[in-house]
Design brief:
Elements lengths: L2 H18 L12 E9 L3 E4 L4 E12 L7 E9 L5 E4 L5 E3 L4 E6 L11 E12 L3 E8 L3 E5 L1 E3 L3
Antiparallel strand pairs: 1-8, 1-11, 2-3, 3-7, 3-9, 4-5, 4-6, 4-8, 9-10
Length: about 160
Protein backbone atom coordinates (compact mmCIF):
# COMPACT_ATOMS: atom_id res chain seq x y z
CA UNK A 1 0.00 0.00 0.00
CA UNK A 2 1.35 3.35 -1.02
CA UNK A 3 1.17 6.63 0.84
CA UNK A 4 -1.17 8.02 -1.82
CA UNK A 5 -3.67 5.17 -1.23
CA UNK A 6 -3.60 5.63 2.56
CA UNK A 7 -3.98 9.42 2.20
CA UNK A 8 -6.96 8.93 -0.13
CA UNK A 9 -8.61 6.49 2.31
CA UNK A 10 -8.09 8.91 5.22
CA UNK A 11 -9.58 11.80 3.23
CA UNK A 12 -12.62 9.67 2.35
CA UNK A 13 -13.06 8.66 5.99
CA UNK A 14 -12.82 12.29 7.19
CA UNK A 15 -15.30 13.39 4.51
CA UNK A 16 -17.73 10.63 5.55
CA UNK A 17 -17.47 11.59 9.22
CA UNK A 18 -18.08 15.27 8.47
CA UNK A 19 -20.98 14.41 6.19
CA UNK A 20 -22.71 12.24 8.83
CA UNK A 21 -22.19 14.67 11.74
CA UNK A 22 -25.77 16.01 11.72
CA UNK A 23 -27.43 12.66 11.03
CA UNK A 24 -28.42 9.79 13.28
CA UNK A 25 -25.12 8.08 12.45
CA UNK A 26 -23.01 10.48 14.50
CA UNK A 27 -25.14 12.41 16.99
CA UNK A 28 -23.53 14.57 19.61
CA UNK A 29 -24.31 13.90 23.26
CA UNK A 30 -26.09 16.98 24.66
CA UNK A 31 -24.11 18.99 27.19
CA UNK A 32 -25.57 19.32 30.66
CA UNK A 33 -26.20 22.84 31.92
CA UNK A 34 -27.22 24.73 35.05
CA UNK A 35 -28.85 27.58 33.13
CA UNK A 36 -29.05 29.53 29.90
CA UNK A 37 -30.67 32.43 28.11
CA UNK A 38 -32.53 31.29 24.99
CA UNK A 39 -33.65 33.34 21.98
CA UNK A 40 -36.79 31.97 20.28
CA UNK A 41 -38.11 33.55 17.06
CA UNK A 42 -41.84 34.31 16.99
CA UNK A 43 -44.00 35.71 14.20
CA UNK A 44 -47.28 37.46 15.01
CA UNK A 45 -47.75 37.68 11.26
CA UNK A 46 -46.03 36.74 8.02
CA UNK A 47 -46.41 38.15 4.52
CA UNK A 48 -47.81 36.35 1.48
CA UNK A 49 -48.08 37.10 -2.19
CA UNK A 50 -46.47 39.73 -4.40
CA UNK A 51 -48.25 42.54 -2.54
CA UNK A 52 -46.99 41.30 0.85
CA UNK A 53 -50.41 40.79 2.37
CA UNK A 54 -50.10 40.11 6.12
CA UNK A 55 -51.31 36.74 7.38
CA UNK A 56 -51.90 36.92 11.14
CA UNK A 57 -50.86 34.11 13.48
CA UNK A 58 -51.40 32.88 17.03
CA UNK A 59 -48.03 32.25 18.68
CA UNK A 60 -47.55 29.59 21.36
CA UNK A 61 -44.22 29.43 23.19
CA UNK A 62 -43.65 25.93 24.57
CA UNK A 63 -41.00 25.29 27.26
CA UNK A 64 -40.33 21.61 28.03
CA UNK A 65 -38.13 20.27 30.79
CA UNK A 66 -36.31 17.35 29.15
CA UNK A 67 -34.45 16.20 32.26
CA UNK A 68 -35.56 12.87 33.71
CA UNK A 69 -34.69 13.61 37.32
CA UNK A 70 -34.42 17.32 38.10
CA UNK A 71 -36.58 20.42 38.23
CA UNK A 72 -35.68 23.58 36.35
CA UNK A 73 -36.59 27.15 37.24
CA UNK A 74 -37.89 29.49 34.55
CA UNK A 75 -36.59 32.88 35.66
CA UNK A 76 -37.98 35.11 32.91
CA UNK A 77 -40.09 34.94 29.74
CA UNK A 78 -39.91 38.23 27.85
CA UNK A 79 -41.58 39.07 24.53
CA UNK A 80 -39.93 41.56 22.14
CA UNK A 81 -41.13 43.22 18.94
CA UNK A 82 -39.42 43.44 15.55
CA UNK A 83 -37.37 46.47 16.71
CA UNK A 84 -36.11 44.59 19.79
CA UNK A 85 -38.29 46.58 22.20
CA UNK A 86 -39.64 44.71 25.22
CA UNK A 87 -43.43 44.34 24.88
CA UNK A 88 -44.35 42.06 27.75
CA UNK A 89 -42.82 40.30 30.75
CA UNK A 90 -44.78 37.09 31.13
CA UNK A 91 -43.55 36.08 34.60
CA UNK A 92 -44.26 38.03 37.78
CA UNK A 93 -42.34 35.30 39.68
CA UNK A 94 -40.19 32.29 38.69
CA UNK A 95 -41.93 29.09 37.58
CA UNK A 96 -40.61 25.62 38.47
CA UNK A 97 -40.97 22.74 36.01
CA UNK A 98 -40.66 19.18 37.30
CA UNK A 99 -39.04 16.43 35.21
CA UNK A 100 -40.78 16.23 31.81
CA UNK A 101 -43.22 19.01 32.74
CA UNK A 102 -43.98 21.78 30.27
CA UNK A 103 -45.52 25.23 30.23
CA UNK A 104 -46.89 27.46 27.47
CA UNK A 105 -47.33 31.17 26.81
CA UNK A 106 -49.67 32.43 24.09
CA UNK A 107 -49.67 35.60 22.00
CA UNK A 108 -53.24 35.97 20.72
CA UNK A 109 -54.13 36.06 17.04
CA UNK A 110 -55.27 39.69 17.23
CA UNK A 111 -52.10 40.90 19.04
CA UNK A 112 -50.06 42.53 16.24
CA UNK A 113 -47.54 44.32 18.51
CA UNK A 114 -44.73 41.81 17.93
CA UNK A 115 -44.62 42.00 14.15
CA UNK A 116 -42.94 39.66 11.72
CA UNK A 117 -39.63 39.74 13.63
CA UNK A 118 -40.90 39.23 17.18
CA UNK A 119 -39.03 37.02 19.66
CA UNK A 120 -38.94 35.64 23.16
CA UNK A 121 -35.94 35.65 25.47
CA UNK A 122 -36.27 32.98 28.16
CA UNK A 123 -33.88 32.52 31.06
CA UNK A 124 -33.81 29.27 33.02
CA UNK A 125 -31.69 27.84 35.87
CA UNK A 126 -31.17 24.61 37.76
CA UNK A 127 -29.35 23.70 40.96
CA UNK A 128 -28.07 20.55 39.23
CA UNK A 129 -26.53 20.02 35.78
CA UNK A 130 -29.50 18.96 33.61
CA UNK A 131 -30.46 18.24 30.03
CA UNK A 132 -31.32 21.69 28.61
CA UNK A 133 -35.03 22.26 28.05
CA UNK A 134 -36.56 22.42 24.59
CA UNK A 135 -38.04 25.81 23.75
CA UNK A 136 -39.95 26.40 20.57
CA UNK A 137 -42.70 28.57 19.18
CA UNK A 138 -45.63 27.23 17.21
CA UNK A 139 -47.32 29.74 14.92
CA UNK A 140 -50.80 28.91 13.58
CA UNK A 141 -52.95 30.97 11.25
CA UNK A 142 -55.75 30.44 8.76
CA UNK A 143 -53.28 29.94 5.88
CA UNK A 144 -50.18 28.45 7.48
CA UNK A 145 -48.54 26.91 10.51
CA UNK A 146 -44.88 26.35 11.41
CA UNK A 147 -42.45 26.15 14.31
CA UNK A 148 -39.19 27.83 15.37
CA UNK A 149 -36.65 26.32 17.75
CA UNK A 150 -34.75 28.34 20.36
CA UNK A 151 -31.08 29.28 20.15
CA UNK A 152 -28.77 29.58 23.17
CA UNK A 153 -27.38 33.08 23.69
CA UNK A 154 -23.73 33.07 24.65
CA UNK A 155 -22.91 35.67 27.33
CA UNK A 156 -20.22 38.22 26.45
Amino acid sequence: MGKKYIRTCLMLLITLLLWTKGTGLAQEIPSLSTGQKIYIPAYSHIYTGNRQIPSFLTVTLSIRNTDMAHDIKIVSVNYYNTKGVLIKKHLPAPVFLKAFESVRYVVDYDDKTGGSGASFIVEWQSENPVNPPIMETIMIGSRSSFTSRGQVLIPR
